[in-house]
């Protein structure tokens, strides 16, 4: 199964495999850029253009796999954690979930795609289990399904973006040196328009927050400084083909702003919860690999910081261009999490 992440700036594809010993193999990954305005706030504004980009992406990757896992942004999904009796049959659980969902969803149930999963026993109430309910407008799900089908793919799973990125990040967190059980890790995904934060402890997400800050602001600063068109500035940013004074006049102020945004998001977490520190910060997304980012964040927050490479400790398939991947790897976190769903039991 392919993992395909559709964001406001690009579509990304990941295909994973496992060897006989259980080790991970990155068989394929590829990225196709989207023009501004094709996708806005998770809504597909230019369906045909995005579908065409997805077809190009699949062709570029060389895959023959048709099954695909996609994701919706958290803004398009309502999630609610509820507690239900542990002894319910699956059918009884479905009836209860629909009843609970009706209280929290501001749409008629016929208009939504609804799913749920049992998280585990409730710690405070013996005989009860915690259940996570997720619901989205059917049209949002159908848009993603339609894109996959237009590209000749078979949509099998529609996930939620932060859940997919958490799945990929969990593998990295488990491998961080020096972290004890119960360590609290802050995962920041720096997208084009939005930076998303998840505070993770084990399998649990303690806190989530989105901020309107992203890599598009760096592109805009390049446009203003050098007079390039937006598309030209974006291309030069990705290929690191910029004037000699770029690092000092444009990149450093952006990196400093990014570190301040990370610090600000953490302060929101600290002031609204009993926590006053995190044990580690992981940075993902296209801007995470920029020079000086981890140092600026570590210095600004006082917490250890690393870039999330979702393909860490994986074997590389023959079709993977490793030189390019070194720069792009952090932007594949969600796509990698979606690809991992194939193996998620």
Automatic annotation (TrEMBL):
A family per Pfam: PilM_2
Protein name per the record: Pilus assembly protein PilM
Gene3D superfamilies on file: 3.30.1490.300, 3.30.420.40
Domain SHS2, first and last residues per copy: 1-169
Origin superkingdom: Bacteria
TM annotation in the entry: none
Lineage, top ranks: Bacteria, Pseudomonadati, Pseudomonadota, Betaproteobacteria, Burkholderiales
InterPro entries on file: ATPase_NBD, FtsA/MreB, PilM, SHS2_FtsA
NCBIfam families from the UniProt entry: pilM
């Amino acid at each position: 199964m392919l993992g395909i992440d559709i964001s406001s700036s690009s579509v990304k594809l990941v295909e994973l495999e496992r060897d006989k010993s259980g080790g991970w193999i990155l068989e394929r990954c590829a990225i196709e850029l989207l023009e501004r305005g094709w996708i806005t706030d998770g809504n597909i504004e230019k369906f045909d253009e995005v579908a065409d980009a997805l077809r190009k992406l699949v062709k570029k990757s060389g895959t023959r796999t048709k099954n695909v896992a996609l994701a919706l942004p958290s803004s398009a999904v309502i999630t609610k954690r509820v507690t239900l009796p542990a002894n319910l049959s699956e059918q009884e659980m479905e009836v209860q979930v629909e009843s609970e969902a009706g209280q929290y969803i501001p749409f008629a149930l016929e208009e939504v795609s609804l799913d749920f999963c049992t998280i585990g026993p409730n710690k405070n109430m013996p005989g009860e289990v915690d259940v996570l309910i997720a619901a989205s407008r059917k049209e949002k799900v159908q848009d993603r399904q339609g894109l996959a089908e237009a590209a000749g793919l078979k949509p099998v799973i529609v996930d939620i973006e932060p859940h997919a990125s958490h799945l990929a990040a969990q593998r990295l967190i488990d491998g961080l040196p020096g972290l004890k059980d119960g360590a609290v890790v802050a995962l920041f995904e720096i997208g084009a328009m939005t930076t998303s934060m998840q505070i993770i402890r084990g399998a649990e997400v303690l806190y989530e927050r989105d901020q309107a800050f992203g890599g598009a602001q760096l592109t805009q600063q390049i446009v203003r400084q050098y007079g390039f068109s937006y598309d030209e500035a974006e291309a030069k940013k990705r290929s690191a083909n910029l004037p000699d004074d770029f690092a000092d006049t444009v990149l450093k102020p952006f990196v400093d702003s990014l570190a301040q945004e990370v610090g600000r998001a953490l302060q929101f977490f600290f002031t609204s919860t009993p926590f006053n520190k995190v044990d580690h910060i992981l940075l993902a997304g296209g801007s995470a690999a920029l020079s000086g980012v981890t140092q600026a964040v570590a210095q600004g927050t006082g917490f250890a910081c690393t870039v999330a490479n979702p393909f860490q400790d994986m074997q590389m398939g023959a079709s993977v261009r490793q030189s390019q991947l070194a720069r792009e790897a952090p932007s594949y976190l969600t796509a990698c999490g979606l690809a991992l769903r194939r193996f998620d039991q």
